[in-house]
Design brief:
By secondary structure, the chain is α+β, with helices and mostly antiparallel strands. Helix content is 37%, strand content 32%.
Length: 98
């Protein structure tokens, strides 16, 4: 009985860890494809895995990162954001007067 519980627990942990690594590998691919299909010059909300989030204009797309111009009060240089760092990326909807 104890061996069966041990085996079942070990199997469940292996399955969960495998599923987590597959999700981590595919999420960066998803963001890369999303950025490739988005039009350059569109504004997006970018959420990173370190908790930071900001609005930015998509400037370019590379194999390992997207180039964005953050919307800030004081202008900042164009930044490369690695797809692995992205948690959520969504296009902002133009508001009134946009």
């Amino acid at each position: 009985m104890r061996t069966t519980i041990h085996f079942a627990t070990t199997t469940a942990l292996i399955v969960l860890l495998a599923a987590h690594s597959v999700t981590a590998q595919t999420s960066s691919e998803v963001w890369r494809r999303f950025a490739e299909q988005a039009e350059v010059g569109t504004e997006h909300n970018v959420h990173l895995n370190d908790g930071h989030h900001f609005k930015a204009t998509l400037v370019g797309v590379r194999d390992n990162a997207m180039l964005v111009q953050p919307k800030t009060r004081v202008p900042v240089p164009i930044q490369a954001v690695a797809y692995d760092d992205v948690v959520r990326l969504e296009r902002t909807k133009p508001g009134i007067g946009a």
